[in-house]
């Protein structure tokens, strides 16, 4: 789709300073190149010959010259619960809303690790205050700086070539520095900056509005923490704008809605079962409870950054794998399996 393609104009102009002259010498019409750079001609309607010539002038590949998926799209993290229920929006802001000691900095460190493996530039804007877990985030970030000026120069130099993941403390929202940085970055670079916003001091655990506008909300859940289920993301309260307006494909959206509905009912039944046992609920509710229990266990996942502590290898699941396995649980294919067998694992075993 045309609106999902953009020309990497900053990269092109940086590598070909006299673009108009160079384009003419390459046999291209200057007006055509100018219109492609300004967006008057959509990239999807440009001739392949023209794009190939521009890539040759810039000394880059077509993949570097053309930025795909510039619209509202998710970034796969390989973490089941996040990709299924509250995906990261490319170029958006993720809010980690949590109380102390709920694993939010471990999750940020894990996201930094995973995105670095995917080719993102990972940047941590170090806060003025310290907190347990900060060193883990710094260790998994490719770059760490403490001043807005350093962060600006770094990102301005990186985002011609790569998407950027920026980890930031909420204090930078309160000071106005994050807003100022974003305004400055509008003039440079082409690839998106995705922001992971944490509250280092956990001062506003019940008020996500204090984080400013969020595209993805990850609300950490005390009940999951008490049962050592990680990542402890509330499956009902956590959400993402990528779920709105049919930005997900139908398979993902259907699985997400079914899973959320099942987990909501499971959570409603938990207090009743704890107080009165299974005898007081209907057969349909019992089935829902058991499947919800299995799905909750399956969404727990080992992290790469936690391997020294958990002694379990980190797990990465593609979105396709997550959706396929979640559907098997929702459809009852795993009804004969104990939840403990699904807990803290990767993919479900496929029976031959």
Automatic annotation (TrEMBL):
Organism superkingdom: Bacteria
Per the record, the major location class is: membrane
Q: Which UniProt keywords apply?
A: ATP synthesis, ATP-binding, CF(1), Ion transport, Membrane, Nucleotide-binding, Translocase, Transport
InterPro entries in the record, alphabetically? ATPase_a/bsu_AS, ATPase_alpha/beta_chains, ATPase_F1/V1_b/a_C, P-loop_NTPase
PROSITE patterns in the cross-refs: ATPASE_ALPHA_BETA
Protein localization: Membrane
PANTHER family the record matches:
ATP SYNTHASE, ATP SYNTHASE SUBUNIT BETA, MITOCHONDRIAL
Recorded family membership = Belongs to the ATPase alpha/beta chains family.
Protein's recorded name? F-type H+-transporting ATPase subunit beta
Q: What species is given as this protein's source?
A: Paenibacillus thailandensis
Q: What is the lineage of its organism?
A: Bacteria, Bacillati, Bacillota, Bacilli, Bacillales
